[in-house]
Every structure is written in C-alpha cells, then in structure tokens.
Design brief:
Distance between the termini: 56 Å
Radius of gyration: 20 Å
Shape: globular
Strand order of the largest sheet: 1-2
Number of strands: 2
Number of helices: 14
CATH architecture: Up-down Bundle
Largest sheet: 2 strands, antiparallel
Order of helices and strands: HHHHHHEHHHHHHHEH
Structural class: mainly alpha
CATH class: Mainly Alpha
C-alpha cells in the first residue's frame, strides 16, 4: 500500500475525527430505506450520513486546493459542495415531471425553490457567519480580497433582481397572463444569468487573473497525493448523491409524520446538511487565517447557486415542461435580497471579525424562525 493510500485510509478512519463516526449512518440509512421501508427514519438518517461525507469532500478538495490558487480552490469547494444540492433539485424536478397530480407536482416545485433559496441563505449567513466567528476567535482581525467581494456581490445583486422582478411582475399583472409572462421572463433571465456566470469565470481565470491572485500554499504541505485526494473526492461525492436521493424520496413522508412545515424543510434542513461541505471547510480554513479561501467557498457557493444552479434548474424544468420559475415567493425573495445586502455591507471593507460573524448568525436565526412558523 502506497504512502498516499495509507493517508487516504487514515482520513476515513473514525479515530481520525469523531465526526467520521457518523459514517455509520450510511448502512443505517440503507437498512431503513431498502429493508424496513421506513421513509421517515431513512430521511433523518440520510441527513446525518451526508455530514461526514461532506466533511471528507471538504478535506479532499482542500488537499487539491493546496496545489492551486485560493480562488481556484474556492471554486472547486463551491462546485463539489453544491453537488448534493444539484442532485436534490434535479430529483425533485424529475418527481414533479412524473407526478400526474398538479397539486403534488407543485409541492416538489416549491421544494426546489425553497432549497435553492436556503442554499443562498445558508452559505451567506450561516457558513460565512461561522467562519467569521471561528476565525475571529483565533485572530483579532482577518483580511480577504475586496475584489472577491465586489465581483461576487455584483453577481448576487443581479441574481436578486432576477428574483424580485418576476415576483413583482406576477403581483402586478396576475392571473393566467401573469403566470405566462413570469414563465417567459424566467426563461430569458436564466439564459442571461448563465451567460453572466460564464463571463465571470472567464474574467476571474483568464483576463483578470492578477486581481484574484492570493498567497500560495508553500507553507503547508499536502498530506495525501493528488490521485488519492481525487479518488476520495469522487467516492465521497457519489455517496453524498446516493444519500441525497434517499433523502428526496423520503422527505414527504417525514414531513407528514414529524409535522415540520415544508418551507422549513426546504429552506433550512435540506441546504443545512446538503451544504455541510462548505460549513466544515470554510470554517476550518478560517481558523488557519486563509480567509480568501473561506470567503471564496461561502460567497462563491452562493454565487454559483444563484447564477448557475438556479437558472440551470429553470431551463431543465422548461425542457421537461415543469412549471419552475423565478417567482420564489415573497418571504423567500425578500430574505435572499436582505441576506445579499447585509453581506455586501459587512464584507465591503475586506476585513472581518467575530462580531460581524455574530451579526450574520443572528440574521440567519431570525429568518430561520420566520420559515419555521410559516404555515
């Protein structure tokens, strides 16, 4: 066995971290899903199983990021961190496509919309808030690239316009004509957002690389080979996707049995566990004073959800004739807009401390309570 493989095995050894003990939730989930056929228990055990798998994804991507720039490392973390979210959204859309009952189909559509909004809120407020607090405990003040704040913040504000305009359009026009207009508007907006995200990546990695240049990682050596890091990343991603599939297929039964509002499950629970990779990685690297990477993960992931994943889901739904639009609802739209606004204000100076992180966590708590008590 090679030295890199030994390191990989050690990474998956439960003795390496107590969190890996939660990997035992994987066989428990499979047991409830395929043997007992207990949908409610399968839902909650799959939620638990995603957490350690997301941690391993974060560890693998951090190892890969050590060989790249922090901006590219942040993009890798955001992309693979959103893999579970994309799988969940695609499965929900497919369930809506298969459903013959229009009311049940709209339940899955609304769950997709809620999970997308929840991912934006979770990464902007919860993940970034935890990173600011945990990093602030170790360092009085931390700095990160103001260019990242400006570019990501501008894209997120554009995405918020895309969310606000269809909701306002539907409210002012209303009726069948308003619904048709929102659908057409959403399809055009989705194409524009995807184009802007492509231009953003071209701007970041080709034409203006120097603006995003950060310190190198020469001071920290990788603990596993690149090959083993990639194998670990792929294996963890596959298992996360499997657990996410079980989660989606059992969410309706769990919601009815436990009595949780569907909006709370979509906005809070699904993104909270589905985006656990960003939680672990962004917070852990903040404690190492690598705030450029931490910020690239948290805000970069929100940007990717808003201007890549969400419009992609809208276009796929358009192809399948599933009525998914950017009219996400008033509470969800206002919450996302306020989250983007407060993050842009707090992060505009390129500095962070634990108090600013506490403010973000406070905002997330209030919004979470609003979704909890929403009928």
């Amino acid at each position: 066995m090679s030295e890199g493989t030994i390191t990989w095995v050690r990474a998956m050894d439960p003795r390496d971290t107590k969190l890996n003990l939660l990997l035992l939730a994987i066989p428990v989930t499979l047991y409830f899903r395929y043997v007992e056929h207990d949908q409610s228990m399968a839902f909650f055990s799959s939620l638990v199983a995603i957490m350690p798998l997301a941690f391993l994804m974060g560890r693998a991507t951090e190892e890969i990021a050590l060989r790249t720039s922090e901006s590219l490392g942040g993009l890798l973390n955001a992309t693979f961190g959103n893999a579970a979210e994309m799988i969940i959204a695609l499965l929900l859309i497919y369930r809506a496509y298969q459903e013959t009952d229009a009311e049940v189909a709209m339940f899955y559509v609304h769950l997709v919309q809620a999970s997308l909004i929840g991912s934006i809120l979770g990464n902007l407020l919860l993940v970034m808030g935890l990173a600011f607090v945990w990093g602030g405990i170790h360092y009085t003040e931390q700095k990160f690239s103001e260019t990242q704040v400006s570019s990501n913040g501008s894209l997120l504000l554009l995405a918020m316009i895309v969310l606000v305009v269809p909701s306002v359009f539907n409210y002012t026009v209303g009726g069948e004509q308003g619904a048709e207009g929102v659908a057409n508007l959403s399809h055009i907006a989705a194409l524009v957002l995807l184009l802007m995200y492509g231009l953003f990546l071209f701007f970041q990695f080709r034409t203006h690389v120097e603006l995003f240049a950060t310190e190198t990682h020469d001071h920290e050596e990788p603990e596993m080979s690149q090959r083993d890091a990639i194998i670990l990343l792929v294996a963890a991603t596959v298992l996360v996707s499997w657990m996410a599939e079980i989660l989606v297929h059992s969410v309706e039964a769990a919601a009815e049995e436990v009595g949780l509002p569907h909006l709370f499950i979509g906005v809070i629970l699904l993104p909270l566990f589905g985006n656990a990779a960003e939680h672990f990685t962004a917070v852990s690297v903040a404690a190492k004073d690598k705030m450029d990477l931490s910020f690239a993960i948290s805000m970069g992931s929100s940007t990717q959800i808003a201007v890549f994943v969400a419009p992609l889901m809208v276009l796929i739904s358009w192809i399948l004739k599933v009525p998914l639009t950017f009219d996400f609802g008033m509470l969800e739209t206002v919450s996302a807009f306020l989250a983007v606004l407060i993050v842009n204000i707090i992060a505009s100076d390129g500095k962070s401390n634990w108090l600013e992180g506490a403010m973000l966590l406070g905002a997330y708590t209030v919004l979470g309570a609003a979704f909890m008590f929403h009928p």
